[in-house]
Amino acid sequence: MEGKITCLQGDGIGPEVMASAKQVLCVIGEKYGHTFHLHDADFGGIAIDTHGEPLPEATLQACLSSDAILLGAVGGPKWDTLAVRPEAGLLGLRKALGLFANIRPVYVHPAVAHLSPLKEEIVQDVDFVVVRELTGGIYFSEPKERTSEHATDTLTYTREEITRIVQHAFELARTRRKKVTSIDKANVMESSKLWREVANEVGANYPDIVLEHLLVDAAAMELIRRPSRFDVVVTENLFGDILSDEASMIAGSLGLLPSASHSLEGPSLYEPIHGSAPDIAGENKANPLAMLYSVSMMLRHSFLLEEEANDVERAISAVLAAGYRTGDLRGEATTTLFTEKVVQELAGVKEGV
Ligand code: NAD
Ligand code: IPM
Ligand code: MN
Q: 236: number of CA atoms within 13 Å, CB side?
């Protein structure tokens, strides 16, 4: 198999976790006889520094012409006061590629369940997926205005935007435990009233799937009280952003959760849910797992390499079970040591075959 992957390492710990991803892709390629053509492109803060904009046209074209895109993270204090920040490049890329469906699996690894700030018995059976709408809502709706005395953001959703993301969630639920939890604020917001109405209409076409609705404030509480009740969670852009960072602590660390973003056609993008972590950038402390799980999602979804994706996950499990952990999980392994162990584990599996 041959595939072209555009690598947007970005800023902060982005380059560190991207280096880890590339090493793992390299060993998977060698082991299974695939050629991954990896192309780097400037994106985010580094692209502002070198090209004067966070999403240069050449980067967008590289993404459009690839089979999949891997992204580290963007942003950092250096660019926080600019009118056009690195984050604007990320939103622009999601919009330009039509990546409306952001899939964020939340899985508690048995080897690290005791490291969650929640009690082990609360987190041990957790296995759910947040389906976050990614190209609409308050992130993108107009008007967006700002004067020194007044600031406006607008939250608009169309029936079409809600329908396609909710359908995506129902289709996913069919492959899982057949339950969809739709999260909104329908007791206050008009966009949420439409969201709930459409979710019910879509749900009527899926009689095999249980649909429940939760208000977002109660959902935030339920995520801590009994997270194992969730299977597929579907929600709008901003709620999904906030709830998925909350959910990362069920798993034990923000450094664990991967994501995949899909459009109706064209390449998908894979990225950790975390940011550029300026507080630990350059220190070889970043947990590479969110990135490596993003790689396994890419192998499975964009390249249909199920065995290879399973192999990456199995290697990660073995390294965790052997006791290697980065600092966010109260361990002492560096990013490079953890990666090296995963690479050795992958190579070792090969020797045993
Ligand atoms: P963050 O996710 O970067 O970091 C939050 C905390 O989690 C920090 O203490 C950090 O050290 C820790 N952390 C995050 N990832 C980790 C990892 N892999 N291993 C170990 N610890 C990890 O959030 P923030 O500090 O609020 O944001 C920093 C910058 O990142 C901002 O500019 C923000 O806009 C940007 N950001 C980018 C993305 C993205 O590129 N997709 C996502 C979120 C935030
Ligand atoms: C994420 C990030 C982004 C978002 C920011 C950096 C624009 O927090 O990918 O979760 O809010 O979507
Ligand atoms: Mn976020």
A: 30
Would you say 29 and 36 are in contact if contact means Cβ atoms under 8 Å apart?
yes
Place of tokens 């050795």: 344
Q: Is residue 346 part of a domain?
A: yes
Residue nearest to atom 5 of ligand 2 (CA): 87
Mutation choice for ligand 1 from 55, 82, 254, 339, CB with most ligand atoms inside 8 A = 254
pTM over 0.90: yes
For residue 88 and ligand 2, the question of a CB distance below 6 A is answered with no
CATH number of the domain enclosing 24: 3.40.718.10
Domain count, the chain: 2
Q: What is the pLDDT of residues 17-59, one digit of tens each?
A: 999 999 999 999 999 999 999 999 999 999 999 999 999 999 9
Q: Atom 43 in ligand 1: which residue has the minimum CA distance?
A: 275
What is the complex's ipTM, to 2 decimals?
Answer: 0.99
Mark which of 251, 279, 297 sits at the end of a domain.
251
Whose atoms come closest to the Cα of 246: which ligand? 3
